[in-house]
Amino acid sequence: MGLNYYQIKKNVLRARKLVIKATNTAGSGHPGGSFSMAEILGCLFNKHLKFDPKNPQWEDRDRLVLSKGHAAPGLFSNMAVAGYFPESELETLRKFGSKLQGHPDLKCPGVEFCGGSLGTGLSYSVGIALAGKIDSKDYHVYTIIGDGESDEGQVWEAAMTAAKYKVDNLTVFLDRNFIQQDSYTEKIMPLDKKLESDNLSEMWKDASRWKTGDKWRSFGWNVIEIDGHRVEQIDSAIAKANATKGVPTIIISRTIKGKSVEHMEDNPAWHGKAPDSDVVPIINMELDSQFMIAPSIIAGDMTNLENEVKRCVSGRADYIHLDVMDGQFVPNKTFDHVKIKELRPLTVIPFDSHLMINDPVKHVRDYIEAGSDIVTVHAEVTDESSFGEIHDVLRQNQVGVGFAINPDTELPEWSYKFLSTLDQLIVMSVVPGKSGQKYIEETHAKMARLNTILKEHDFSGYIEADGGVNLENIGSVFADGARAFVGGGAIIGQQDVRAAIRDFRNEVLTSRRQLLLDKANELGGTELVNKWIGLHVVGEKQEQIKKIAQERGYL
Questions:
Q1: CA distances to 122, 145, 155, 472 from 119, in Å
Q2: Judging by beta carbons within 10 Å of its beta carbon (0-12, 13-18, 19+), is residue 468 exposed, middle or buried?
Q3: Per-residue pLDDT reduced to its tens digit, 2-30
């Protein structure tokens, strides 16, 4: 089975939007901690957790315990997406008589633990994990605890107990977002090396400061440390935890409080605070504007693709774009599924296999077996029948479904029926198979036409821009609607891949800030623009956004 990468990302987005809707409607709640654990819950609900929303008390279900119970909106939103109750029910959050209260309650079918008093969830989890072992049950217990919550001594008593009784059917996630109710965790009760300033990037950049794992190892736990917003790292960590025998596992997930909403990120004020109604449309637009950068390794040394993959890893690419060319559909020939299978063990970063080949329906299973996480085929070599077969076999194997159109190809009408379940649409902005081309300017107008069609047919995937994307045009390509960007020479062709990816991100971030300011001005003029700017209080964001607003004539 594949990573189920795009389905997880799409459902995480749905869940985040529901958190905003729920807390705004309630006028209170905890979006910050809900967002920091969003990808963790997304991976559990959409890949690993055994559950049946129609039978919440199924005896053999896995147990999910949210010990940091204030993040209930994050749990409820994922339960709604998973089918436990209608998504509209999130609008009853914290209302009298609702089963969706400010903290999880057993009155809500599917909730395993009444989280409220912090520090107790791990003890409870050890108990039900041990009971499962005693009763020879096959269920697994997944528990999410907070780093502020870890100030509680009961957490460490439970940690000792779990190790003593060897409850290897227990996996704990530590949501390590460095913020608790009053301030930064390292200023209150450090788990890592004490933080002297308010610059949380010090904790991220310097791994020598990370001491939390050592604490848990000393208590006899298997410790895995990850970026808690990288779907592939979470997935890999869960698989390793489930394979570990004789000891419990904790996955220390370094996360960002308020992740995906810039003014909430790393801001203690958003621990427990609801967004105002006038900014909700702007927040939703920002959530829809998350983006990914994917280096194309054929722009590097074709004689040493292994090293090019390693450069992508060190550069922190979101995923790796693999251009498969057969020398028939396009003039050039690169590699096939055999090489992809050789490269697969090098990293867990998703592989985006772009098949520029004839008769892809005959070969798609080879690329699934090779370890592709996303497979894209071209409109020019498929029809409704063959693409339908490709679509279904990719879905069955939890591999992302991609569809590509060349510069002179419009989206065929037969493809419209697939748009609502399509994960990725690649809009080629150069002629495939030829190197050194510039971005075809007509693509901007083509994107405008496509956006209308995609909206009409409920497309919820990512548009990927492939070909000639560079620092000069990526901002405008983002404004067109692309949310994934393939970089060949502009990334892999550079000596410092990490710096090139960082520069790409900064350009897109600037373009996104411009679009959000445009939205604020459209909805509320100067007053709302000023309010939006004023929300960004962490670091230098406020001055940077204010400068953009001045340049656009809003101030």
A1: 7, 8, 5, 50
A2: buried
A3: 999 999 999 999 999 999 999 999 999 99
pLDDT of residue 204: 66
Q: Residue 354 forms beta bridges with which residues?
A: 323, 376
H-run or E-run covering 462? strand 462-466
For the chain, first and last CA: distance in Å? 52
Continuous segment of H or E residues that includes residue 285: helix 280-287
Strands annotated E in 135-236: 141-146, 170-176, 222-227
Q: The tokens of 553 are what?
A: 């004539």
As given in the structure block, the two tokens for residue 173 are: 């996630």
Label residue 133 exposed, middle or buried (CB < 10 Å: 0-12, 13-18, 19+): middle
Could you tell me the two tokens for 383?
């029809």
Whether 333 and 357 have beta carbons less than 8 Å apart is answered as no
pTM: 0.97
pLDDT digits (tens, 9 = 90+) for 267-291: 999 999 999 999 999 999 999 999 9
Reported as a pLDDT band with limits 50, 70 and 90, residue 117 is confident
**Dihedral of the alpha carbons of 32, 34, 36, 39, in degrees to the nearest 10:** -150
Q: What φ, ψ does residue 184 adopt, rounded to 5°?
A: -75, 135
Check if the beta carbon of residue 175 is closer than 8 Å to that of residue 259.
no
The whole-angstrom separation of Cα 263 and Cα 270 is: 9
3-state SS track over 391-418: HHHHHHCCCEEEEEECCCCCCCHHHHHH
- Residues 6 or more apart in contact with residue 350 via CB below 8 angstroms: 3, 5, 231, 232, 318, 319, 320, 373, 374
Q: Which of 364, 285, 375 is nearest to 322 (CA)?
A: 375
**3-class DSSP state of 29:** coil
* Distance between CA atoms of residues 159 and 176, nearest Å: 17
Helix (H, G, I), strand (E, B) or coil at 539: coil
Q: DSSP of 430-458, one letter per residue?
A: S-TT-SSPPPPTTHHHHHHHHHHHHHHTT
Q: What is the mean pLDDT of the segment spanning 139-160?
A: 96
Place of tokens 């002629």: 431
Quick one: pLDDT at residue 478? Answer: 98
Tokens of 253: 């997930």
